[in-house]
């Protein structure tokens, strides 16, 4: 049965805040500095992975003061659950990525299947390069061979939510990061 807002409130009350809003802001500043150093003259396309990538991508974008284009893909394998399944591809990208340098932005790198699959897909569409930028990297053995080039924060192997990441589709709007 789908979780209610009361369930979501109860989960938050029991959760531990593992990164404050300030820590998230500082991590985004560091990521933006690194991305600016590498991409300021490369006319990249920033591709946001919906839905969780929306919040980190939006906050990163306002810190990237150089020419870039924005696109998105919508792909999901958790669908409001805490266990991942097969990746369902729903939409995007819309721009031609032929010869372009792509910054693929998501909220979290966990088992790695999502970013690995999307990265392969974008390279198959002709992208010159695809680098992954994630707000959070979970410290676990990946299911596939992928790592992010740009990482904001690390978390241990717990289900986390906030700043894009959901608890049963709730709590993406929290400014800190919480663990069950
Ligand atoms: O590294 P993985 O184990 O593949 O997990 C990471 C992915 O899982 C979440 O997406 P989800 O499928 O839950 O969709 P959402 O973005 O709508 O939350 C998250 O946003 C990442 O895209
Ligand atoms: O720990 C997580 N939290 C939220 N979404 C996720 N998608 C993969 N892992 C997670």
TrEMBL record:
Lineage top rank: taxon: Bacteria
* Any one of the GO CC terms: cytosol
Q: Which residues form the Phosphoribosyltransferase domain?
A: 16-167
Is Glycosyltransferase one of the keywords?
yes
Name the InterPro entries on file.
Answer: HGPRT, PRTase-like, PRTase_dom
Record's catalysed reaction(s): IMP + diphosphate = hypoxanthine + 5-phospho-alpha-D-ribose 1-diphosphate; GMP + diphosphate = guanine + 5-phospho-alpha-D-ribose 1-diphosphate
Q: Which Gene3D superfamilies match?
A: 3.40.50.2020
Q: Name one GO biological process term.
A: IMP salvage
Q: From the UniProt record, which GO molecular function terms apply? A: hypoxanthine phosphoribosyltransferase activity; magnesium ion binding
- Give the record's keywords alphabetically: Glycosyltransferase, Transferase
Q: Does the keyword Membrane apply?
A: no
Q: Which PANTHER family does the annotation name?
A: HYPOXANTHINE PHOSPHORIBOSYLTRANSFERASE, HYPOXANTHINE-GUANINE PHOSPHORIBOSYLTRANSFERASE
Q: What is this protein called?
A: Hypoxanthine phosphoribosyltransferase
